[in-house]
Amino acid sequence: MTMTMSRVMCRPTQPLKNVPSNSSISGQNQIIRPKEKVVLVMGATGSGKTRLSIDLATCFPSEIINSDKIQVYSGLDVVTNKATKEEQRGVPHHLLGTQNPNTEFTASDFCHMASHAIESITHREKVPIIVGGSNSYIEALVDKFGPRYDWCCLWVDVSTSVLHSYVAQRVDHMLGGGMVNELRPFFSPNGDYSKGIRKAIGVPEFHEYFRREAFSSTEMRMRLLQDAVREVKRNTCHLACKQLGRIQWLRSVKGWKIHRVCATPVFQKRGQEANDAWKNVVAQPCASIVSQFLYSANAVSGRVPASLQQNSH
Q: Which terminus of the chain has fewer CB atoms gathered within 10 Å of its CB, N or C?
């Protein structure tokens, strides 16, 4: 689904200046520079995080940093559902398909490279938008560098039953888009799927299919394929549940201020109606939140006590 977000809630895509507020002066001679602002886009797999991040980046002077621990590797573009060049709409992306697929990219590696990307982006007077489903990476980054920045956290939420149905359809779409042929080179005869991109959902699930396809009947290959696809769907839904649980934990236990936006109505519609719903219930509300965060002197961001989370929506 493609659409152009209304600019009603957006500021012109010009360099973002950090203008000191009245509280930025401490003592007679010392000036404390306002913290740089960073936007986080969170959500379960398939919820529309990537779409929202690109919508926001075309609305504000921004660049995107990928925080998905599998999309960071090169390869498996269909299986990992990387945004295509067309879908990126000219927005610069960092840490997307840049790493050797046969090496291990850790949370520590992510923190190191993401922090450099943030510094580079803010130096160009743009806003870093960090997006991805690997909440452990995001949590590690905020834990390590949290005090340096002001954070605005957006959560694109979709009801579990609706999301699971969509995820199953997306896997079927991947199957038609060449998923099997894309996966074949990553088959490991010894069954080692513990490192790099081979940990991606889809790779280990197809192990038995690739191991037996050469000497199986057509009927058996079809059965093995159906088994593999069913496992991919099941494990993707399981991942989505884990991701949602982690976001809720960050919100309620660690006390992160997270703006939740419900995208369920979008997934219950089709075609232009879905695009209209996306604009009305996701894109414009999130653009309004980000606009206030970036341009309002009274914007509140970052973490708040867990006791106040019932007031965060």
A: C
Distance of CA 116 to the CA centre of its chain: 19
Q: Taking residues 85-110, what's their average pLDDT? A: 96
Beta bridge partners of 129: 39, 64
- CB atoms near residue 153 (< 10 Å): 26
Cα(104)–Cα(270) distance, rounded to whole angstroms?
39
Q: Helix, strand, or coil here: 135? A: helix
Give pLDDT tens digits for 152-200: 999 999 999 999 999 999 999 999 999 999 999 999 999 899 999 999 9
Residue 90 φ/ψ region, left for φ over 0, alpha for ψ in the -120 to 50 degree band, beta for the rest: left
d(CA 311, CA 286): 17
Q: Are strands 62-66 and 36-43 parallel, antiparallel or unpaired?
A: unpaired
Compute, in degrees rounded to 10, the torsion defined by CA atoms 56, 39, 1, 10.
-20
Six-digit token string for 52? 């929202």
Residue range 31-78, pLDDT digits in tens = 556 789 999 999 999 999 999 999 999 999 999 999 999 999 999 999
